[in-house]
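Usage example:
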Amino acid sequence: MEVLYLLLPIALLVSVVIALFFLWSVRSGQYDDLDGEAHRVLMDDDHHPTPEP
Amino acid sequence: MHSIIRTIDAPANPYTPAMTECYHCGEVVQVEQQAIREIAGQNRTMCCEGCATVAAVIHASGLSAYYRKRTALPRPVDETKQSLPEAFADILDDEMIRSQFVRSDHEELNEADFIVQNMHCPSCVWLIENRLSAVAGIDSASVNYRTQKLSLKWRRAELSLADIARTIESVGYQVVPYSHSEFSRTIQARHQDLLKRTGIAGIFGMQIMVIAVALYASAWTSIEIAYEELFRRLSLLFVLPIMFYCAAPIFRGALQDLKQRSATMDVPIALGLMVAFIASLFATLSGTGEIYYDSIAMFVFFQLTARFLEQGAYRKMNERINSLTAAAPTHANRLTDPDNPEHVDVVPALRLKAGERVLVRPGEAFPADGHIVKGSTDINEAILTGESNVITQGTGGPVFGGSINVSQPVVVKVSKPSSASALAAIVELLEKSVSQKPSGTRLTDRIAGKFSATVVLIAVLTGAFWYYFDSPGWLAHSIAVLVVACPCALALAVPTALTATVNAAAREGILIARPDAVHELARADTFVFDKTGTLTQSDAQLKHVETFSNKDRPHALGIAAALASASEHPASKALVRSLKRAKVDATDILATHGSGIAGVVNGKKHFLGSLEFIRANTVHALQDSVLEEQSGLVAYLSDEQRVIAVFYFDNPLREDAVPLIGWLKTLPVKLALVTGDRKAEAHRVAARLDIAQTHWGCSPEDKLGIIKLRQSEGEYVAMVGDGVNDAPVLAAANVSVAPANSQQIAKAHADVLLLDDQLKLLAVVRSMAEFAVNIMRNNTIWAIAYNLVGISLAAAGLVPPLAAAVGMSVSSLAVVGNSLRIMSFKPTPI
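Running the assembly step on the lines above writes:
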């Protein structure tokens, strides 16, 4: 059971990393438009618009 | 006229209906208006020039894939064009206007947000983004589908705002600038903040749960004391961010309540959390005693999730309302040479100064108060007075900013800048009533104060009781009381129900913009209605045609519509609307403002207008007795010899006004009608709907006075209105509802907004609110009952931490489950 002394700090570390990742994702606005992204992924860009004449 | 309203015969359609659908908008194509373009090697038929132009631009930009991708059809382009004035794009570049919404305004890169109007499906996002990204000078363009907001970065040196607006218009959409109000920025920041706290509480809470399970299991299988110590200390580490970061808003709220000597649910929650944490902290450090970390984590997570969902629901509604009410800045055609109306430049209305002259064309709004110096016209002042009929003003006559010029172009000398106009005065009245709005209190907040005091008292009594009987667990028992009493379910009772109501209402096409509106709508015992545009339709409609010669009705209507198409008068518009298909052409049209129109139809001279106009032009006008009794809006059609037909108009009731009022009458509520219109018109509508109390000829101040008087008599007033002149009243009423076709300012200040143009949604939202309040009451009773049982058991020393944690989550889930019933609420049809 001594392995707990290794595993629990790792668990602590991993959750801190996840928490930081989460904070970053919120701050960078990834949760701002949840509906739009769901549609955007379906709009594949199979062509390129012609530039301004 | 007798009471029977005859319907108008459907006009004979000389064309066989060619059921071609417009390539762009999918409308059935009318042959006389069709436009054909070659697109991708195929001839495509469009319903109008507007659609054809848009389709050609989309194709030329290489974006034809839009037609494959889209999942919903746009509106025809011509129809939507009216929503923005043509000169709009030009004033975007005016320094005064652009400074209001363009950010980081240095030479290189500009940033601004716009609301895109007419978006109808997700492929619009694709179309707009791709069209803009192909334009040189645009750095990035991204459209938020939910809020219909376009965020744009572009290089100012290469591209003007007018160009951008026109580019977007060329693919069939309109943009209006969107300036982030301080309020919406705060809401956005608060939303992100709450999301962060909720997420962190979830992540660390999960770790605490895992450890808690191990600790609870140790009750059955023994665990080495060293590992137990490790688990408890680690839990403490995990709970620190939850206590000090995630739960901070709860503590802050409680502190504020204490300072203001009021109480919301925050006070008992903060009390419970603090006691649980301090007791657990001592237990962990001393190695003896119970820990409640799992309860704390779960509790904070539940609380924050509920708050996050509730706030998210209202944020969504507010964003919808913001995008619905975004208005283009008003502009004015200022005369560069005061005596020559041929030369105008377009300026924002805000820039007008007293003494300047502006040209106002038919269909435009007057940009400021002033008086007419050249010409005469009919004016629709409904926006200020609520009166539905037009008035006629000649040279020297006063005009008011915001009212609509109906018939003739006129030159107006501005007497007050637009910030001092009559419209601005109404807006000021509005702001005053917003600040005086009676605030409602929540059910649970009313009991929160007593609840906290009772719990503390019980905890003290418990401790004293066990201490008196020399029990070593006296402190533990009293702590258990405080922890169990931490009102998780009670705090969830109302927010979860409100969130479910807001979402269920949105599904029915109703926006609830203010949380308390649900309570207040259920509680309202007086419903006050505005008339024009609310109970009646806002446009006049042809009610009845009477013919005097041997001509049939469709024929007479055809001639009248041909003449009427030259005028913007409400009656003319109604005539044109009732005859859309078979149009006859009129030539040599001469409109005499305020009286009538003359023109040649089918090779014969015809006259359409008021009785005086007809008398002046027709040899055999009808006997006076027949014609003079008519009240309301009437138009006469004649040729040079005799009167052909009489057209009667009215503002018909909305289809669902009668069933709605009928339904309201089955409730114990009072009904009243408040209108700026004339007495006869008000009484006509009141009689049709059987509304006993009618106030007519009311100015916005009068309306406000009526509402305040009723409130001071203890009535709980719900106001239903649509106009600018209703806005102050909407803000002052306990709860306010605006139908879909309302003026933007009314929409922006209503608590509840009906999205579909159906008045009967009011019945839906009222019964939904009643149901929701019932659910909240159930929830509250259940939560209090749970707490009573829990506190009694804890006082008896029978609640270990595991039971506290399980009890808390079960009671909370029961409340959430009960609230979810609102989502499946089916309104009874009326």
